[in-house]
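<instruction>
Derive structure tokens from the sequence
<data>
Labelled lines for chain and fold:
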Amino acid sequence: MRQANAAIDEPDALRVASKFARALKGEKSVKPEAAGVSAYVGGTTFAFVSELSQSDRRKLNRRKTELAERIRAMLTEWVAGHPDSRTGAARPGRIEGRKGRGLGEILREEEGLRRLDEIAIAKRLEDWAGPVAGAMELSRELGLPRSTLNRWQHAGDVIGLLKGIRKHVYPIEQFVDGRPARGLADVKAIIGNPRVAWHWLRGRNPALRGCRPIDLLKDDRVREVVEAAQSYFQQ
């Protein structure tokens, strides 16, 4: 990958920006000043991406959703901090460098585990996973034969969480009309660990505009969730 301080190929950037600007002129809803700066940013981005290796371009392609969010956040932050912005806020001054205290005492594994036990707070499975049910409860409430549930679990289509030593329970939120939400298998295959997968699925995700991935899966927005999972877990 090119060095961060390498110069962008200005001719390439301007050439692409010019074509981009001409294309935007045909859009009635696009304001001229927005078209100009958008074209320049697009051209500069193209010049940078075109010099990346094929491997690096694949990484960007897998993380398009997160990339778009980061670009939006960067532009928002830059405009807010620019002296010409509507807020009138000035750019931050020189930041004073500080040095931390470094690593603390290196502990033996046994001592580290003992200290963790002292501060760890026990939580019930339901406290972080939400409502769960065993195979018999799902069979009674949703009419799911246990054989079907076992088949789904072995195929990776449903997320089962170990409760206790042997018993598996199933988060109820993952079911839609008596079936696992479409895309669960894809997410589970990317993440691997079912507990990590379910914890991620229930959490609000900035790359998905603050939505919970499980809610998007239940709305059949599988591609967005899969791309977000790839950006988080396949780096």
Notes: Residues 10-81 form one domain. The chain has twelve helices and five strands. Confidence is low (pLDDT under 50) at residues 1-6, 85-89. The first strand starts at residue 132 and ends at 133.
